Amino acid sequence: MAVCVAVIGKDNSPKYIRCSDETAALQFHYKVHTSIDIIEEKLNTGNKMAADVRELFLGLLFSTEEHKIFGYATNTKIKFIVVLQSTNASLRDNEVRMIFRKLHSAYANAVCNPFYVPGDQIQSKGFDTAVMEIMGVS
């Protein structure tokens, strides 16, 4: 399924990045950081129109020969980025939306932990397990 999952804070600092292939982690970090600009652009154009009906799922941010990068932004400006293989053409928008819903739910559970300090890196076993499930790694 996903080859990289990232959670970016409202100040555009990475809070969590997990890649299936650790040897190509630097390449995925670059793709994640490149997509932050596209997310910011989409969020700013959305504010000019109607901020109340803003869709959380931002859709396909950009595509390369190997990967497709999708974005999602919460109401609190936390951004989720998922990198999928381009060869996985069977994934439809609804399935990608479900991936983001699971990720958002796992994120909400992780930050609701009373021992989590807001703004820190996410170091939750439950969140890690949910991300590994999204990535298809058991």
From TrEMBL:
Compartment(s) where it occurs, according to its Swiss-Prot or TrEMBL record: Cytoplasm, Perinuclear region
UniProt keyword annotations, A-Z: ER-Golgi transport, Transport
Keyword tRNA-binding: no
Matching InterPro entries: Longin-like_dom_sf, Sedlin, TRAPPC2L
A Pfam short name: Sedlin_N
Broad class of where this protein is predominantly found: cytoplasm
Classification via SUPFAM superfamilies: SNARE-like
Family: Belongs to the TRAPP small subunits family. Sedlin subfamily.
Protein name (database record): Trafficking protein particle complex subunit 2-like protein
